[in-house]
Design a protein that fits this description.
The complex is a heterodimer of chains A (359) and B (385).
Chain A (H helix, E strand, L loop, with lengths): L4 H12 L6 E5 L17 H14 L3 E5 L1 H17 L6 H20 L5 E2 L4 E5 L4 E5 L8 H4 L4 H4 L2 E2 L8 H10 L21 H9 L4 E5 L4 E5 L26 E6 L4 E5 L6 E6 L1 E4 L8 E7 L7 E8 L2 E6 L11 E6 L2 E7 L2 E4 L6
Parallel strand pairs in A: 1-2, 3-6, 7-10
Antiparallel strand pairs in A: 4-5, 5-17, 7-8, 9-10, 11-15, 11-18, 12-17, 13-14, 13-16, 14-15, 16-17
Helix pairs in contact in A: 1-2, 1-7, 3-4
Chain B lengths: L1 E2 L10 H10 L10 H21 L6 E4 L2 H14 L7 E5 L4 H14 L2 E5 L9 H7 L4 E7 L11 H11 L2 E5 L11 H5 L7 E8 L10 E5 L25 H39 L4 E2 L10 E5 L5 H10 L2 E2 L15 H5 L4 H4 L2 E5 L6 H19 L2
Parallel strand pairs in B: 1-11, 3-4, 3-5, 5-6, 6-7
Antiparallel strand pairs in B: 2-8, 7-8, 9-10, 10-12
Helix pairs in contact in B: 1-8, 2-8, 3-4, 8-12, 9-12
The chains are: A alpha+beta (359), B alpha/beta (385).
């Protein structure tokens, strides 16, 4: 129970369904704020209180459990080291993978619970070969992407009461009807441990800023930057090169080289990626029957899924989109769908450009 | 329901509640008219009773809203009225958060410096280390009479003597100790010169069976800390505000009852404690008892249970209707690993594997037997032994 309206209604529905429910607020950040100052960030003392009051209304026990140390090790440290390696991490995936449905699940099972219930919009469906994870009934609020990192064992202990609700409005109305003060609370977005939304500033503080070169693909130095980690592949803003490219086209970040502290830029076409792959992959449920299959791939939580071919090759999940993808950064998660079913995912460690470098 | 968190708070005693209710509505003790005089009389009689219990003069009893206010008044008040060229606060490790946070604030806002004193392995403040920490740059020193988590009892008279000899004002935090130990403020203070030695001592009512919202700071007539609250100038100008007559009566009653029962109750609790620990030692050999085995509050049992998260044990016991604590009270709603346990030399990880059990007047042998069984079961469940 984060203190948000989704988990509040999820808890209410779980109680109504007749389950024995205990509400838990996860304390993940040591530098937690006291009052909510907007929609960014999460889990201030005020959020914990909001969650507690919902638990009070539902008549269920409520605890605040401290997973801040594991969160620091598995999510925050990973976030920083990924940027240091020139990759673009997704900490929400790591949190689901390592904390919410791992550390928390371990403790829950230890204490005699059967499942973790959350307010995620996703559905579980019993398929031919086992339990499957599917999109929610409402495409606009579907959160199956961030759950793509869960495995079969984890899914067996999941419970998503909101997955079949067609709209967020309905959930808010239900919260209102139940007398929850959080009915009108805005959704939180951005990274929960960077409440002011300034990822660049956060990274600068954690990693230090060092000037480096901005190059084009031929290696020519175009300008300087204040720290390679501040950039992400596909980024257009913030380059500050000063003079336009010879062809007049806008420049985009193509590559980050953390060791040399260099950023490589080029035209939009150069962003096109014909293939992505990852050696860290998992199946969200039963493994696919074929080693190669048609699917749709989604590379961001709010990106559109695109048709692709997925294959296991040499220990990696290799995904070849029908049409090249733009702006794919290593470190991102590619989630593979067949219909509404989340088949699996990989952390992208290799991308193959669709465009050769001009001499 | 088996309540074993008396150190956090203990139920309002029947006699105390009755005395408190009877004294409600008595009037404003500062009013000049007859009604005010009558209220004043009730208040001052209570103050005299409190003074008798704590071994000080009635004029030295400053009634407050509780332990936190008392500690804040002492630390901030003594800081504010400090002598020239004195900028350091001597702060032993493992003090209660009221002292730690008040001191932090003084560091952040007032340019204070902190000189810490390490605890020994059983959580005691070593007297020689404490003495050595005091010098002419010390604005004030503070120390627990008895520790709220470990239960370890410090040598209050020795610490007071050290402060007097060094010419440093000392505040003693007796929030956990009052009721269980005899507090002798004037005797401990001894012949110290004005403004030095033991000058202030904090107690909290709800730790003794008086209501939440009652407490006192004993302030030597030879000290003049600055107040936190300005207003009507009540209580020597040290604590403005309409005085809580009923609260004073409740506090006085609770203290007297504790004094009368102390010897017998301490013996009873010590017996319960020994019995429990003997059984635990036989059935749960991994448990380590923290604190001073020879000098501790008899009701407090502080255990390190390796391999089991305190939060998990607390939950399982709670499910059985047994209420215990993991030690450090909720800071901002999250159970932090106890800084006190870490001050004993334990890692943060080990500090999260600690339970504090605190017995009280209502605790029976059967309660402790039940706890013992539950703890053995739940511990083995969590550690798969």
């Amino acid at each position: 129970m984060s203190g948000g309206v989704d988990s509040a209604v999820a808890a209410a529905r779980a109680v109504e369904a007749g389950h024995e429910v205990v509400g838990v607020h996860l304390a993940l950040s040591r530098a937690g704020g006291t009052l909510r100052t907007g929609s960014r960030g999460c889990c201030t003392v005020e959020d914990a209180m909001d969650a507690r009051r919902v638990a009070d209304k539902l008549g269920i026990p409520f605890y605040v459990w401290d997973f801040s140390e594991r969160f620091r090790d598995d999510v925050i440290d990973d976030f920083i080291s990924e940027y240091q390696a020139g990759r673009t991490p997704n900490p929400c995936m790591r949190c689901n993978e390592k904390i919410k449905f791992a550390a928390l699940l371990e403790r829950a099972l230890e204490l005699g619970f059967d499942a973790i219930c959350t307010g995620h919009y996703a559905t579980l469906v019993e398929g031919e070969d086992g339990l499957e994870l599917h999109r929610s009934s409402e495409e606009a609020k579907d959160q199956s992407y961030v759950l793509g990192v869960l495995n079969a064992e984890q899914l067996r202990h999941c419970y998503f009461p909101l997955g079949t609700t067609p709209s967020k409005q309905i959930v808010r109305a239900e919260a209102e009807a139940r007398g929850f003060s959080v009915a009108k609370k805005p959704d939180s977005y951005d990274i929960c441990f960077i409440p002011d939304g300034d990822t660049r500033g956060y990274l600068a503080e954690k990693m230090g800023m060092e000037q480096g070169e901005i190059l084009d693909r031929s290696g020519a130095v175009l300008g300087t930057h204040e720290g390679a980690h501040a950039f992400t592949v596909g980024q257009r803003k913030g380059l500050n090169i000063g003079r336009p490219a010879p062809d007049g086209k806008p420049r985009f970040v193509l590559e980050i080289r953390p060791v040399q502290n260099q950023v490589v830029v080029g035209p939009k076409e150069a962003l096109a990626v014909s293939r992505i792959s990852g050696s860290r992959y998992s199946w969200a449920g039963p493994a696919p029957r074929d080693t190669e299959f048609a699917c749709e791939v989604q590379i961001r939580a709010h990106a559109d899924p695109v048709p692709a071919l997925a294959a296991l090759e040499g220990g990696s999940l290799v995904i070849t989109p029908e049409v090249p993808l733009d702006g794919v950064a290593t470190g991102q998660t590619a989630v593979v769908y067949v219909g509404t079913r989340v088949v699996g995912q990989c952390t992208i460690d290799t991308t193959v450009s669709a465009v050769p470098v001009e001499a | 329901m088996i309540y074993l968190d008396h150190a956090a708070t203990t139920p309002l005693r029947g006699e105390v509640r009755d005395a408190w209710l009877e004294a409600q509505g008595v009037g404003n003790a500062s009013s000049v008219h007859g009604a005010g005089q009558r209220a004043r009389r009730v208040l001052e009689e209570a103050r005299e009773r409190i003074a008798t219990s704590l071994g000080c003069q009635p004029i030295e009893v400053v009634l407050t809203s509780g332990g936190t206010e008392s500690v804040n008044l002492a630390l901030k008040g003594l800081w504010s009225s400090r002598g020239p060229q004195r900028d350091t606060i001597v702060l032993p490790d493992g003090e209660h958060h009221a002292s730690l946070d008040a001191a932090s604030w003084l560091v952040a806002r007032e340019g204070a410096r902190v000189r810490s004193v390490a605890l020994d392995r059983v959580g005691r403040i070593p007297e020689d280390a404490f003495r050595e920490a005091l010098d002419s740059s010390t604005a004030l020193a503070t120390a627990l009479v008895a520790a709220n988590e470990t239960g370890t009892i410090n040598d209050a008279p020795a610490l007071s003597r050290a402060a007097a000899a060094a010419g440093v004002p000392l505040h003693l935090d007796a929030v956990a100790a009052a009721g269980h130990l005899a507090i002798e403020f004037s005797a401990w203070r001894g012949p110290a010169v004005a403004g030095a030695g033991l000058v202030a001592l904090s107690i909290s009512g709800h730790k003794l069976g008086a209501p939440v919202g009652t407490g006192a700071l004993i302030v030597s007539r030879h000290a003049a800390p600055d107040p936190l609250l300005h207003g009507g100038g009540q209580q020597r100008g040290l604590r403005a505000g309409t005085q809580d007559v009923a609260g004073a009566v409740a506090l006085a009653t609770a203290l007297e009852l504790a004094d009368a029962e102390r010897e017998a109750e301490n013996a009873r609790l010590e017996e319960l404690r020994s019995r429990f620990l003997a059984t635990l030692g036989a059935r749960l050999a991994e448990a380590v008892v923290l604190g001073d085995p020879d000098s501790h509050l008899p009701g407090t049992i502080h255990l390190h249970l390796p391999g089991a998260e305190g939060e998990s044990l607390l939950f399982l016991l709670d499910q059985r209707g047994i209420s215990v604590s993991t030690g450090s009270a909720c800071q901002a709603g999250v159970a932090e690993p106890s800084h006190v346990v870490m001050a004993l030399g334990y890692s943060a990880e080990a500090a999260r594997q600690v339970l504090r059990i605190s017995m009280g007047r209502t605790t029976s042998e059967a309660d402790m037997d039940r706890l013992g069984e539950a703890l053995v079961d739940d511990y083995s469940r969590l550690t798969h032994r």
